[in-house]
Design a protein that fits this description.
Number of domains: 2
Number of strands: 10
CATH architecture of the largest domain: 2-Layer Sandwich
Strand content: 15-25%
Number of helices: 6
Shape: globular
CATH class of the largest domain: Alpha Beta
Order of helices and strands: EEEEEHHEEHEEEHHH
CATH topology of the largest domain: Zincin-like
Helix content: 25-40%
CATH superfamily of the largest domain: Metalloproteases ("zincins"), catalytic domain
Radius of gyration: 22 Å
Amino acid sequence: MQLKLPFRLPAPPSRGEPVTTTLIVGRKALRVTFVRHPRARHYLLRVARDGGVCVTLPARGSRAEALRFVREKVAWIERERYRQAVEQATSAWVNEKQALVDGRWVDLAEAGGTTATAVRRQLRADAELVLPQRLAELAAAHGFEVAAVSIRDQRSRWGSCSPTGRISLNWRLVQMPPAVRDYVLLHELAHLRHPNHSRRFWKELEALCPWHRDARRWLAEHGGRAGVEQG
């Protein structure tokens, strides 16, 4: 992706005063704030919680160099925004009062006052048993062969499939409604035949999971951006 710069660029920040501008990345607007720091030795980039980008300039850093730095880091910025969206969404799935289990909220007080930490630990243990078993059932039903499966604490993906047929799954899948969970598993199984998101892949997924649009909608609403285009 190429950044289309505005016709007039903001003046470089001075004396530590931030200067904010909007850059167009593809079809998206990227809000960038430039701050000059007298002790900074390099250009530094940080993605804020609201999705904006903050660039710290060295004392003698130039505006052109700062913009070039942002252009070079566009891919990293997108990955970091993606990761933060997932982390923010899923961190709320277990709190001190409730936990999301199979798509339903469970009151921790009614469950004997279990702590959020204990719930996460138990859900992770459940995932180690439930997810590989369900993946094996779906693979057998649709004629897939999985080389291996692992359960991980992933921050930016619900699942992934390697070229060697090894599938990794996010333990938080056990918190989703079963139909949404099955969509993610079928999504990764489809990658065994199509290692990309080509038309052939989506045609395969349509046959395996006719409800995939509803599942992706749930993920977009409840799980940030993760799961919509997981690989």
